[in-house]
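@channel sequence for tomorrow's demo:
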Amino acid sequence: MSALWEPITLGEHFLRRAEQYGDRIALSDGTQKVTYRQLVELAGTDRERLRQAGVQPHELVIMQMSNGIPFVQMFLALMLEEVVPILMLPNHGVRELTGIQSKVHCRFHLTDDGIQHFTGMKQVAYVAPEAVVKAQSPDARIAILLLSGGTTGIPKLIPRTHGDYYYSCMQTANKNHWSDQTTLLTPLPLGHNFALAHPGILGVLFHGGKAVVPRYASPLDILNLIRAEQVNALILVPALLHLLMEARELLPEADLSTLRQIYVGGAMLPVADAERTVELFGNVLIQVFGTAEGLICTTRQDDPLEKILTTQGTPVSPHDELRIVDGSGDLLPAGQRGELLTRGPYTIHYYYGILDKDNQYFTSDGWYKTGDLASIDAQGYITIHGRIKERINRAGEKIIPSYLEELLTEWGVFSEVAVIGVPDPVLTERICICGKPISGADVLDLGQINHFLKEKGVSGFCMGDDYLEVHTWPLTAVGKTDKKQLLKLAEEQKT
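structure tokens (generated this afternoon):
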């Protein structure tokens, strides 16, 4: 695919833009502003810190930092040094951290407190640089390892190269005409693929625009920052969009005259919320569907309104291929629902450290199995209907029910336990823990359950939102837990 992009690194792409836009503002956190030239200098300081700590080119490090200018300067330092970050979110817990450490050798943990050496953690054999590089061309080397959910709750590692990541980032940003006049605000964690690059802060920096990256931003803060920073593009998940609409209704006088685009992704956007977005903010909505593994789809602002409200658009690259297949892998006609498969120039064909002998994730001819239930209409617009593989989507975070169920079963206070997602207008889904206490067990409440999960190192976004105590456990005809019946009981409890 070398014809689709230059054989240079992400760091080299940034230096080109910095040379071109030197004294333009590159970043703002709401209080401090940094030019492109200053950002190069800050990244240079972090490069020296990395070298002094003993970090080597092509080495894997875990990066787990909060939003803000320091995140961006450290990320660019890593790209310039060709160090490979494994991007974790600030609220990832001990379980995810140790799970990653069980797969790869990482000597360093980059946090808000600096460059930390790992201590007291089980180490696997050191990963030689050759195993990371895999090619001589700089664009074909692994740039970053993103995280994906897994059946055990331990994330899979997604290898993205310098070339494919730059290409998909630029294709996404160009689809809705980003330029050096774009000012992007993202309150989402920068370790997310969406906020980082699709179109994200890299999409802005590679066009000479400005990224606004506050450490924290409430819905009211977002409204104020749009006015103060002259923001014209905003990236949100549906849960945060819902809260922003509530804030907008409370402050209809807020000056949002510069806002031109609201990108919404990470979870399905209800049609009612899409319609309300257009009512409150005008023709600004751009729906996004993407996978960290590759495929990115978006609507265009000049699409028919019906497509913007009800679909996730079309692929950002003309070279993306899509299929909708049934349970046997047979191709389905337009409009029918089935599993979405994709292949293309920036979609991965393997998970780092996983031998996919049974074609669980990829077909033998290179198609990635997304696990998403989708349909494609006659015009090529894709609509995502949910997950084929069971996951809970809470505010854009993907939670594996079996991960929590295993821990709660080991606790020894439930004879039966199940974790389900309950539809929620704000969060998309709430995490409901359903349990049948063992005979004689003390009365449990949600606080006790979450305290147990926290002690087990579970991330904050995986904690239960509701607890349903069930005394007669529902079973299907084949003797499995009837989660549809549990969902019905949970919804009845809410009312």
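heads up for whoever presents: The first helix runs from residue 10 to 20.
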